[in-house]
Design goal:
mainly alpha, 2 domains, 0% strand
Length: 144
């Protein structure tokens, strides 16, 4: 059970590293603006903000309800926001830097880095086991 949980956690961490790499690649003003616009539209915050500005209780309640829905567990708000923001950046702002190949490469980098770290960690664990065995052997020889 512990191994399954560890694998799930490693996948979860790698996924969010990939998301972060994609968000960083959207770092120009078009990417930031598209991410902000999409987040305000989808999360309900924009509806609640308009409700506060217009002093409309119904819009405030609707925006709060939508935002409350997204706060439930296992709702894909961030993934949907980033996907729509990339579409807005690509097709509304006509930014040619956003391509599916670049997004795939960012995720491959995030997952590859984690795999490299696993290999390095296993090598270090083997080295520490060998060193521990050598120290124990030396102690046993000193006692004789």
């Amino acid at each position: 059970m512990g191994n399954l949980l560890r694998r799930w956690w490693n996948w979860f961490v790698r996924f969010w590293k990939g998301i972060w790499a994609v968000v960083k690649s959207m770092g120009n003003w078009k990417g930031v603006l598209s991410l902000l616009i999409v987040w305000l539209l989808i999360s309900g915050s924009g509806v609640a903000l308009i409700g506060f500005i217009l002093q409309n209780g119904w819009l405030i309640g609707l925006g709060t309800t939508i935002y409350g829905f997204w706060l439930l567990p296992a709702t894909p708000l961030i993934a949907i926001n980033i996907a729509f923001a990339m579409l807005v950046q690509r097709f509304v702002f006509q930014d040619r830097n956003v391509t599916w190949q670049s997004i795939r490469s960012k995720f491959k980098e995030a997952f590859a880095k984690e795999e490299d770290q696993k290999e390095t960690t296993s090598i270090h664990e083997e080295d520490s086991k060998l060193l521990t065995k050598e120290v124990q052997d030396d102690e046993n020889n000193d006692r004789k």
